Amino acid sequence: MQLGGPLDGRAAIPAHQLRSRWIAAAELGLISSTFSTIVSQLFAARIGRDAWVDWTTVAAIPARDWALSAEPSWSAVLAGIAFHQWADFSWAMVFFGVLGRWTAQLRPLAILLLALLWAVFSSATEWLLLVPLIPFWQPLFTLQQPYWIGLLVHGASALMYPLFAWLRWAPGCAPIRDVRVVKVWAAASAAVILVLGGIAFLSTIGRELPWMGRDRDADQAYIRHMTTHHAQGIELASLGAERARDPHLRALANLMVASQSGETRIFESWWQSWFKTPMPDCTADERAIMPGYLTPMQIQQVRSAAPEQFDAQFTAMMTLHHKGAVKMADLAWRSPADFRLRIMAHAIRHEQQGQIALMQGIEGTTAVATALRNMFADNVN
Q1: Residue 36: helix, strand or coil by DSSP?
Q2: Of 147, 144, 145, 137, which Cα lies nearest the Cα of 62?
Q3: CB within 8 A of 38, min separation 6: which ones?
Q4: 3-state class (DSSP) for residue 295
């Protein structure tokens, strides 16, 4: 399989042997966007992501606060999937349609290499520009999800791009070597979906992939502490979802409930699968030294706050609580924990730093700069 050059090495190909690159690009866009959607749905929980919450976050790009609820709704999830499909489809149309003069004649391996670079470019463009600035002006996506989540999704889509080398040909006209490559590629893609589907099914019956950390006690302590911390976060966020006067703050509180509930379910699933024992509750002493864990008096201050003071009181206490969770997650991210816990910890620290910024009303270029800083910040020292 050669790296580059025209499809058959000749200067020109008879027109009747090739289909419109726009039609082929549209078909490829449907295939690649569907593949990335399926892979994202099946793979998300393996690295500590609640796919349903992530889809609602995507839906919030065009739909704003309507998509955010304490329990992701089917309408929001479907809207998120549809928006993702449209975006992936559009990137494929640009790659093979608009840029088709240079890309449409490439061989499969050359397409793959360029497509992976395209995934880096397209995901960065969405995360840094198109979503938080022009045209959507929606900071939530960039502040809620670290860049690498979008990169993984776009990378999954890019893996389907080599199929274009076959879709471009009229029926029966594709070179044998391209047909062979496509058959192998399609079989491998189907195998990936089947394997991920099997792993996802096993997870539903408590059979996640085994624990692979170095320090069992440390990993268990982190899961227990973050689960307890999230429980209080859900309690506090539920108050905000019920009482906040600012509708945007109320929607954001709903998102906090949804994201922390989803992460708690993943923690509980991993614990049962990895350690085969009930998860012990945190003791009073553990709660007392836990960063950002509020005292009963602080929780009561929020509960008893007057209506006109509630939003400010809620924001202050949730900021304090989030900062503690960020510190805990940062410690886990920088530890030799199971790699899934570390990946999840990095997403949690980004998400909760981002929610602090969102409560402060940060948007535009300031939101982008904040998200970039949050990706690499040291919240331990």
Answers
A1: helix
A2: 137
A3: 193
A4: coil
Count of other CB atoms within 10 angstroms of residue 101: 9
Give the 3-state secondary structure percentages of the chain, helix then strand then coil, rounded to 5: 75, 0, 25
What the block records as the tokens of 223 is: 């899961």
**Angle formed at CA 281 by CA 313 and CA 293, multiple of 5 degrees:** 20
Report the pLDDT value the prediction gives residue 372, as an integer from 0 to 100.
97
Residues 6+ apart with CB under 8 A from 336: 213, 214, 215
Domain boundaries, the chain: 15-204, 216-376
The predicted pLDDT at position 179 comes to: 84
Q: What is the DSSP string of 71-113?
A: S--HHHHHHHHHHHHHHHHHHHHIIIIITHHHHTT--HHHHHH
Angle at 270 between CA 267 and CA 272, to 5 degrees: 110
Q: What does the DSSP 8-state code read for residue 169?
A: B
Which amino acid is residue 366, in one-letter code? T
Q: Which CATH architecture has domain 216-376?
A: Up-down Bundle (1.20)
Q: Is 34 exposed, middle or buried (0-12, 13-18, 19+ CB in 10 A)?
A: middle
The type of residue at 312 is A
Helix residue ranges, H only, 159-246: 164-167, 176-204, 216-243
CA dist., res. 186 & res. 162, Å (int): 10
pTM exceeds 0.70, yes or no:
yes
Per-residue pLDDT tens for 18-46?
889 999 999 999 999 999 999 999 999 99
Tens digit of each residue's pLDDT (9 = 90 or more) over 95-106: 999 999 999 989
What pLDDT does 176 receive?
86
- Under-70 pLDDT residues of the chain: 1-16, 381
As a whole number of angstroms, the distance between CA 212 and CA 75 comes to 37
Name residue, tokens 């170095």. Answer: 214
> What does the pLDDT read at residue 15?
60
Torsion of CA 231, 310, 144, 37, to 10 degrees: 70
